[in-house]
Amino acid sequence: MVAGVAALHAAVLLGLALAPSASVTWIVTIEASPPPAAPPSAMAPVPRSPPTPAPVSAPLTSARACPLARTDAPRLRPPVLPEDIDHVAVAPSNVGWVAAWNPRSIYVSTDAGAHFARVLDGPGRVVDVGFDCFGTVVAIRGTQLGLRSGAREAWRSVPGLRIEPEAGDPDLADDAWRYHAAVVSGGPEVVVVGLQADPEAYWSPRIARSHDLGATWGYHDVDGDWEHAVVYGRQREDGTIAIELPFEDCRAAGISAITIRAGRVATADYGTWPSVGEGVWPATPGLPADAVWLGDGLARAGADVYRVAGDRARKLPVIVEGDQALRDGAGRVWTVVCGQPWIARATASGRTCDADAD
Prior knowledge:
Elements: E1 24-28, E2 87-90, E3 98-101, E4 106-109, E5 117-119, E6 126-131, E7 137-141, E8 144-149, E9 152-156, E10 182-184, E11 190-195, E12 205-210, E13 216-221, E14 232-235, E15 241-248, E16 253-261, E17 264-273, E18 292-295, E19 298-301, E20 304-309, E21 312-315, E22 326-327, E23 333-337, E24 340-343, H1 354-357
Antiparallel strand pairs: 1-13, 2-3, 3-4, 4-5, 6-7, 7-8, 8-9, 10-11, 11-12, 12-13, 14-15, 15-16, 16-17, 18-19, 19-20, 20-21, 22-23, 23-24
């Protein structure tokens, strides 16, 4: 029987070539962490015998390339899920893959939002959900990383990151919510952004990447503060990680742009704005001055969403009623309206939320 993470794929993803660099540290995780106890409705966990670790000094090459991106999708009305959700995520490489979740449950669609199924049940708060380019669902739940490929599920730890059982909950004690993490989707690896394990590092971000579905991990440490558990951007099909991390302190706020290619890290900070989440844009033709940056080339002012390219902005022909706005490869803009996933249209949804009805 194929053991551990290899059971998730017929051929194990071996990873991308990384040039030796002082900025990269590779460790081998020999012992897999125990999976969360799943409720009766969940699938049985994949047997998880420890995989044979690859030599740390060996070059890490990929035997698999990402499949061609899918960009065709129908204009449909997503189904009503059995419970309210707070977040949606779309796969950068395939418009057929959509995730919706709340702190307790994760729902995934593999048919562009026509149907959703509940996956990766277990204890712990759901922090973030994403996809690699092969369709593996990647979820951070409590201190564990959940992976689902086809009908198989497995759980892994991410050593080297500070992730607390209730990460991402700002209502908890001061230190508990700091150890947040986020999934970076779209490429051939599992990529997670979190905080460095060293308490002295405080808010310093660390990017963890695994070419073998969590059996081993490599790390890139980045200078600066990452106080918001938000990541914009993706991993590209060639393995390049291109992301933006919002930063904010008592002096300024803005975006740190990070590009990791062939093991080398390049960073650049831009923007000195009043606050993340407030009007953050300098004068840009076609963009209102109070627009808010949503990431991935989108900005928002009220219910209007703008596509930003270079120094120009173009208003999209949709009305966004929810807080989120994510554009998939087919041009559809996903959001959450009244606790349910929704694809924005040129007219309002017409939905009346319970709070509004009161």
